[in-house]
Design goal:
By secondary structure, this protein is mainly β. It has one domain: TonB-dependent receptor, beta-barrel domain (Maltoporin, Chain A). The chain is built from five helices and 20 strands.
Length: 415
């Protein structure tokens, strides 16, 4: 009898909990997943005619990744291979691409703004994202839409930062191998003006000899609405990485022995700084919703290419100023029309030198000389215009049409 009463009580309690949860869900409704990376504006995931996946804030918080690979590999069609420190190799519906071809295959963006200029990308550039404090991470599998041009060939990774507003959260973490991290979100909502500060600082010794890194990420966000209806949503992000890079472990079954924790390239390193500032202005002018995003970026990276014969040292930097603009309107037949224009000007330079002679075969010694390999400055002008047409039919079919025309000019000055 006691057991029967106990089972009945448990069943009743579970039923009441389920009913309460159902009632609460019905009252609150199911939260709609929104995406910005397909068309530069927030739209429901179910309304997008593209292969898009989204990892939301709650899931990002539960993952608590120390490397973006830990998050992205949960998505279908995505395979991120983590290299040493904060480096990575990417595959999105593609082979795992390496070398120069890899950095031009995927567009890596934060709040819709590419972290590096076209032509100056790096295969590891996802370490320039402030993804630890993101509100969501969006991945477009396959070529990007007409809203995106260069580099969105195989896919797009877009980190969406939180909206400015009230926040008071500080997290301290400590783990094995000297790993330490601080994360913080501090913000204020002052009515018409909102602001938010995001902080992430990570230090790790690494499990291999001389393979540690220190990385700091700082983002300030703000939101302000003017008296004439313009909404300003912008911020500034600074990323700093100082990494001691471990080289490849070679040899038969080397992964089984003590050599797997060694480092055949203790001299290797990577130092990178990335600063970006932007403001997105939105307003409704007549029948058009207008979105304008001016931005600037400043990148400086220095590292030893320990993976190449001769181990040359590369020092590259570039500064950009650009504008993304688009206007949306609803047509009388229920379709949506978008027209946009993008422009960017970049001033860049690269110096690559090899301090020591090349070792190896006769071909390598004679084709990769000691001394200066590259020394140039380059001015880049890039302009693009695009149009997009989206329509849904009652039969269930969706029609997406896009056209983008892009022109990029490089002017080199070789040293």
């Amino acid at each position: 009898m006691v057991r029967t009463l106990l089972h009945t009580g448990i069943a009743t309690s579970l039923a009441l909990i389920a009913l309460s949860a159902s009632a609460q869900q019905a009252a609150d409704g199911i939260e709609e997943i929104t995406v910005t990376s397909n068309s530069r504006k927030s739209e429901g995931l179910a309304d997008i005619n593209a292969a898009v996946s989204v990892i939301g804030e709650e899931e990002l918080r539960s993952i608590g990744h120390t490397h973006l690979q830990e998050t992205l590999n949960r998505l279908p069609g995505v395979s991120i291979h983590r290299n040493n420190g904060q480096e990575s190799l990417t595959a999105i519906r593609s082979p795992v691409l390496t070398g120069a071809g890899a950095c031009g295959a995927f567009l890596v963006a934060e709040n819709g703004i590419p972290v590096r200029s076209s032509g100056f990308c790096n295969v590891n550039e996802m370490f320039d994202l402030h993804a630890e404090n993101a509100s969501s991470v969006e991945v477009v599998r396959g070529p990007g839409s007409a809203f995106w041009g260069s580099n969105a060939v195989h896919g797009l990774v877009n980190v969406v930062l939180p909206k400015a507003g009230d926040a008071r959260q500080v997290t301290l973490e400590q783990g094995p191998r000297g790993s330490q991290r601080i994360k913080a979100q501090l913000g204020q909502d002052q009515g018409n003006f909102k602001q938010l500060l995001l902080v992430n600082g990570t230090s790790e010794e690494g499990y291999r000899t001389e393979s540690g890194f220190d990385q700091q990420k700082l983002t300030y966000l703000y939101n302000y609405t003017t008296s004439n209806g313009w909404e300003l949503d912008g911020g500034i992000t600074h990323i700093n990485l100082n990494q001691e890079t471990a080289g490849f472990v070679t040899g038969f079954e080397s992964y089984k022995g003590a050599s797997r924790t060694g480092n055949p390239n203790p001299e290797a390193y990577r130092d990178s700084k990335n600063t970006r500032a932007w403001t997105t202005l939105t307003n409704t002018l007549g029948d058009w919703d207008v979105v304008l995003t001016p931005y600037v970026r400043d990148i400086d990276m220095n590292f030893i290419q320990h993976f190449l014969p001769g181990q040359p040292i590369e020092d590259t930097e570039h500064q950009s100023i650009g504008l993304q603009s688009v206007a949306f309107t609803d047509l009388s037949n229920g379709a949506e029309l978008a027209i946009g224009f993008d422009a960017e000007v970049t001033d860049g330079s690269l110096i690559q030198t090899q301090p020591n002679p090349t070792e190896g075969s006769f071909f390598l010694r004679n084709s990769i000389p000691q001394g200066k390999h590259y020394d140039y400055q380059v001015d880049v002008e890039q302009v693009a215009a695009f149009v997009s047409y989206e329509q849904s039919f009652q039969s269930g079919w969706d029609l997406s049409l896009g056209l983008r025309v892009e022109d990029t000019n490089y002017e080199y000055d070789n040293g």
